[in-house]
Amino acid sequence: MLAKNMLSMSGLSLYRNAVQFGMNIAIAAFVLPGDYGLIVFTTPFLVLIAMLTDLGMTSAITRAPTLSRDEAGAAMGAMMTGGAVCAALLVAGAWPLERAIGMAGLAPVMAAMAGVVLLSISAATPRALMERELRYARIARIEAVAIAVAALAGLAAAWGGAGVWALVLYNLLVQAMRLVAFGWTMRGVLRPNARFGQLAGLLSFGGWVLANNILNFLARNSDNLLIGAWLGSAAVGVYGLAYQFMLAPLMAITWPTSGILLSTLRGEDPHGARAQAMVEGVLSATALIVTPAMIYLTFGLAFPVDNLLSGHWAAVPAIVAWLAPAGALQAIASYNGALLMVAGRARAQFVLSVANTTVLVATFVLALPHGLMVLVQAYTAAITVMSLAFLAMTVMLTGLHVMRLASALAPALLATGAGVAAVAFSTGLRPASWTEWIAATALYGTAVLACYALLHLHVRRTLAALLARGAAPDAAVTGT
Length: 480
What we know:
- The protein is mainly α.
- The chain has two domains: 1-190, no CATH class; 238-471, no CATH class.
- Helices cover 82% and strands 0% of the residues.
- The chain is built from 18 helices and no strands.
């Protein structure tokens, strides 16, 4: 059932992001932006290693009509081998890179985080097998426990003065516990092996996924690399903390739900009535959540940041005020990738990613010499244009009428507008005390929920589409 899986995975992602934000704020209270920027600058290298060692096979495992135990074991063996080699190369290159760009303290953090990506890639195959079987509730329970335990350890380390190393510890513990739990759960059907000749079928599809993922990597991480190299670790630290707010709806809702859509609609006609109803419901549900939440950040974030963090982080709310609306639109529009994969059009997804990456990287390169805020404003404009293009592609892929799309998104827009108007005409959009901030927050939330109550028929239709049952695809892993 799509709704149950969405609740499991989106709930997990919201929980993970809430914990991660808590960790980031706690760390920000103890360290300077330059120290936090070491983690932000290191992350793109970890993401790149994970993609190169994955080779698109986890997506292929989820989508493949049939899958043998030998194929699954070979996939895990290949990813673990590649992950170990790339992690070793990252450790070896950490100190030369630190000297080359003059970012003091980068090397030990990068070397420690290499262990994170090795643990993560080792857990990818057993987790993909669980997704294949639509065991999202079990996945959510495993990850929730890992996050909770690791967060407690990380916060204790931060309280004890570990600084940025508290985040390193948090990430290491999360990935270690995920690997143990996922591996144990799938132990009966998964044995890593070196029969890499078994991977031809997975790689034939996964190759396009890998190429697409590399392009997305450039689109989503070149900004951090360029800012870090051009403006230094402090600037990338401030930008990195602000960027997480923009990325939150993608991580919490769009990406996990895209995987569920891929698993649920595998083998179906994207133009079919069931697929259209599910896509419409997913777009509407995403908009109902992310639109009011992200617009709230444009006026509700400044006061707590200014009062809880040092002046070194003062630019964060201004950056978020630009990025948050674009983040909401991006989260709603980014299901087109999953729909292309459902339709088996991996090559078309690659072409789209080429265009998206070209636009964004060119934006970063042209805007960065003019300063951080100019880059943020240009990035916001580029993301808005590309997201509108993605929505248009979703309409073409599903045959969904434009009026149905507008109807699906209208309640979220109306409720958000009502919430902003209520705050603007009462407490004002710039609270000057904790009492005013609490009042503005409560009033905004009340206005949004009241609008949803008035539009209850639309909400019920959205839930009905997500609760509709359909025949689950055959997801068994067969013997050799």
